[in-house]
Every structure is written in structure tokens, then in C-alpha cells.
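Q: Hi! First time doing this. I have a protein sequence and I read that you can turn it into a structure. Is that right? Here it is:
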Amino acid sequence: MGACQSCCGGKSRDGLYEPVLADSEREAVADLLQYLENVSRGETDFFSGEPLRALSILVFSDNIDLQRSASLTFAEITERDVREVDRDTLEPILFLLQSPDIEVQRAASAALGNLAVNTTHEDNKAKIARSGALGPLTRLAKSRDMRVQRNATGALLNMTHSDENRVQLVNAGSIPVLVQLLASTDVDVQYYCTTALSNIAVDARNRKKLAASEPKLVHSLVELMSSQSPKVQCQAALALRNLASDEKYQLDIVRNNGLTPLLHLLQSSYLPLILSAVACIRNISIHPLNESPIIEAGFLKPLVDLLGSTEHEEIQCHAISTLRNLAASSDRNKALVLEAGAVQKCKQLVLDVPITVQSEMTAAIAVLALSDDLKVHLLNLGVFDVLIPLTHSPSIEVQGNSAAALGNLSSKVGNYAIFIQDWSEPNGGIHGYLSRFLASGDATFQHIAIWTLLQLLESEDKALISLIGKSEEIVDMIKQISNRPIEADLEFEEDDEGEVINLAQRCLELLGQSGSKAHIEG
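A: Yes, that's right. Below is the predicted 3D structure, encoded as C-alpha cells:
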């Protein structure tokens, strides 16, 4: 290792003679050299006992060469052997952190970062946070020496992986320094600071502090999405994604021209960049005011393409969820999402993708089916071919979303021929889906089924109404629900229960089988 080869006195670099070492220092140096020889054989534990005592003597010496040797030894040891440490180990490193010597600062900050890097030793991070090291580390991050900056920001990043440590970090005043260093010319410093801020932005309380104190943050992160370094681009997009958990930042990112670099990342061939960009645009798309700007920026086709160009489940989920968000607020945007080929792509893929993606895709179709202008178009695309089978899904969410889409498509369609055509097929058809949902005992499922039935009965399509009336199974279940006493219990809220019963009674009236003469609101 050779960390202590120049620590026994003699000429220093400025040509002056250093003071002769004290006996305790000379003994510590000799002991340390012996311990270092045993390191390669794994026989020395520098984190306790005599080896730590010898190191500590060098640390607290007035001799700067001894301090340099001690700090280098800590850096090298912690790079190859990280284990849980106690305050006795941290105190000498903390002392070295506050040295005015650049070499000592470099090595001490590296050692502390190493102790915090290993996820199997989370206790180390908490101990470092409680030791008072975050203040000195934050000050070192402002150093003019790039290696000190790099080591200090890397160590601060390693401290951002738990709620408690992030609180300590914020309290130590690290946020303004991390934000300022986003403008560093060093790629590693940019990466460490961007990633640290991304982790800090996970917490809502921290986002509020950032919003109140760092007005240039979004602009800086948007600029870093155009960095020459993919890892910096990726972390900048992820930091913006976390910030965009809040409405303010959803709007700020668009106002700071964040859509153009995001679209560029979305169309990258590098999977981590695609994932970070699509996760970010998903959050941004939540705000209704962002729907049209995102569409106008050209995101629709690339998002649709992502659905089929990758088998990456998370990317597919983010992409279809974004498309659903973009369609949420206006019929015009729903039509544009449909024109971009979203439904065709979903129909092509939905039966073969993971359940999480199925849930998002069926939810998107249900949203599009809310537009009266698009219902016939959706039916002509053959969505029943996938929606009906998916009401059999093992996933409650997929079942519910598929049924909601069928329900939305059943209202005010004009031509109900496809409901008659698919009454029994595929997979039991509309009839099978209604029967199962009515018999499910689930309040939400029964509500969807009864509401859908009412739309079909109000269609005035005699052939369809006849099919419903001939199904003893469906009629009997409608009667059972309509005769249910309204009372709150563990399964139903009273209002929901009452509405389901009202809908059932209205269905019976339209079937001519109601025993009540009272007018009931549908």
C-alpha cells in the first residue's frame, strides 16, 4: 500500500525540516507498517483495536505528513473493505475532513463516501449523518479542488438513500450547494449532484423547500438533459420526474422548455434514457394544462411506438398511462390519441402483455370510450375482441377497467348491432360478462353491470332488449338486487347500495317486470 513511506521525518516538500516524531507517533508508524503488510492476507481489522489506535495517533498528530498518510490509509482500506463502523472509527475521519490540507480533504472525503456506499451497511449512513459529518462534507463540496468536490458530492449522494438521512442533509444546508454545482464543468460532479437532488425530491416536504428556495433548479435540470453524458441526462430526467410529483413543477418544466429535450430522450436507443424520459413525461402529463402542449410538441406517435417497440414493462406502463392522461380532459385530445394509433396498438398487444400493462391499456380505452364522437370508431376497430376476454382476467383491475370500457361504449352508440353479434361470443360474450359481474357480490362490479344493462335497455333496440329479457339468469339477478333492503354494512356504502338498487329497479321497469309504479331516477 505504501501509505506511510514518507511519514518518519526528514525534508518536507517546501525544503524545511519537519520536527522529529514523538515516540508514540514513531511507534504508531512502525505498528501501522506492520499492519499494512498483513492486509493482503486479510489479518488486519483497521476499524477497531490496535490498528485503529495507531491510525488515530497519526490523525491527531500535528505533523501534516502523518495526517496525509492516515487519510490515505483510511481511503484505501474503505475502498477494499467496508463494514459496519462505530463512532471511534468515524471520529478520526471527521477530524480529517476539517483539515485545511487538500490531500487530506481528498482522502478523508473518499473514505467517508466509501463507508456510506455499501447498501448492506445502512447503519453506517445513519451514523455518519448523526456524527456531524454532513456540514463539513457540504463545505468541501464547494472546494476549488475538483477531486475534493467529486469525493464530497459523491459522499453526499451516498447519504440520500433514506428519509432520515435526507432530513439531516437538508438541515445541514446541502441543497443550495448541490443546486449550485449542477453548473459544474465536471461530469461526475454533475452526476452526483443531479442524483442526490433526485433522491431529495422524493420527499414532498423537500420539494416544497426546493420550490421556495431554488428558482433556477428546473432550468438547470432541463439544460442537463442535453448533456453529452447519458448518465447525467438520465438523472436529470429522473430528478424532474420526482419534482413533477407536484403540480407546480409539472407546469414549470413545460414553461422552462423541458418538452423538447424530453422528446429527444424518449426517442433515444438507450433504454435507461427512454425509461427516465417516459417516466418524467407521465408525471408532467397529469396536469390538464399540459395535455395540449405535450401533444403539440409531437409526443403522441413516439409514445404509441414505445408500446410495441419494447418488452420493457415499466416503459410500456408509463407510455400508455401518459396517452391516457393526454386524453383525459377534452374530446379533441381523445380524437388525436385515437388518430395516433393508440387503440390499434393496444388491441394488437393487450392480450399478451403483463397484467400491469393490461390494466393501463384497458383504462386508456375506457377513457377514450367516454367520447360520444369516438364510440362507433372504437367499436369498428374491434375492441370487443379484447375487452370481453379481459373481463375474465385474474386481475380485478383489468376486469374492472375492461367492464368500464364496455359500459362507456354501451351508452348512446346509435347502432347496437355489435352488442347483438357479440352477445354470446367471444368468451361468453356480453351476456357472460354481465352475468358474472351481477353474480360477483362485488359492489363496484355489480354497479358497472347494472349501469351497462340500463344503457342497453334504453337503446330502444328491440332485438337487444329481447336477448336481455330472455336471459332468466340476468333477469333473476336484477330482481334479487332490486329487492335488496338498503342498509349499510361492511361491503357497501349506503349511497352506493341505494344507487345500484335504483338502477336495478329501473332495468325491471324497462323490461316490463317492475312491481313498483313509482318513478325512479335512472
